Amino acid sequence: MRPHPLLRPLLAALAALLLVLTPAGPAWAEFSLPPLPYATDALEPAIDATTMALHHDRHHSGYVANLNAQIPAYPPLADLSLDALQGQVGRVPAAVRTAVRNNGGGHWNHSQFWAVMAPVGQGGEPSAELLAAIEASFGSLEAMQSKFNQAAAGRFGSGWAWLIRKPTGTLAITSTANQDNPLMNLPGIERGTPLLGLDVWEHAYYLKYQNRRPDYIAAWWELVNWNEVNRRFAATEA
Ligand SMILES: [Fe+2]
Q1: How far is the CA of 2 from the centre of ligand 1 (A)?
Q2: What is the pLDDT of residue 193?
Q3: Which residues of 57-84 are buried (b: 16+ CB within 10 A; e: fewer)?
Q4: What's the 7 CA to ligand 1 centre distance in angstroms?
Q5: Structural domains of the chain, with CATH
Q6: d(CA 170, ligand 1 centre) in Å
Q7: How do residues 163-196 score in pLDDT, each as one tens digit?
Q8: How far away, in angstroms, is 203 Cα from ligand 1 center?
Q9: Whether residue 16 has pLDDT greater than 70
Q10: Ligand 1 centroid to 204 CA: how many Å?
Q11: What pLDDT, on a 0 to 100 scale, did the predictor assign at position 23?
């Protein structure tokens, strides 16, 4: 049986109408919150489950949401990977730069933070190659940790302590304020590739440790995921 001669134009009109009526989805790729790679209580007792849940589900997710909120005002943001964004913060238009710096940094910093921690006993050890680089730059693993602890405890207010690999190839300890990190092309930041970063914002430890930041730092070393630090170090040699 032949179809009615009006069927084809009718279907075409319906399809066109559907295209007009269907709301366009966002044309950008939004940033997304990575899941924790372990349960919220997996890092007990060094970091309690309530702190982990609040830190990831409220603080980190807030940075992601606030970063995405900048996309309509600065659409090129959607075309940048989170890694690439860090090195370009200084070129973001002034109107959105502070928001992108704080929230893009917050998203990157926390994403690495979850990855460089593991339940006690599951983080492995520094690789022979990483250990050699640490000894060449600091004298010993203990000397590196001592310098890292000083940077973490001495960061006034909120910020991060970092073990980085500098463009020269040597390792260094540095610290950044707020949600800045060593990948950012901003004045006053010692640049390098972060191998290990510790969050020393009060939201990271205050429920359990109150004002005892050094106790939090000391306990945190038990959680370091050296397997991930080794991977990050090896990637800088590629
Ligand atoms: Fe944090």
Answers
A1: 68
A2: 98
A3: eeebeebbebbbebbeebeebbebeeee
A4: 60
A5: 45-238 (3.55.40.20)
A6: 27
A7: 999 999 999 999 999 999 999 999 999 999 999 9
A8: 6
A9: no
A10: 5
A11: 46
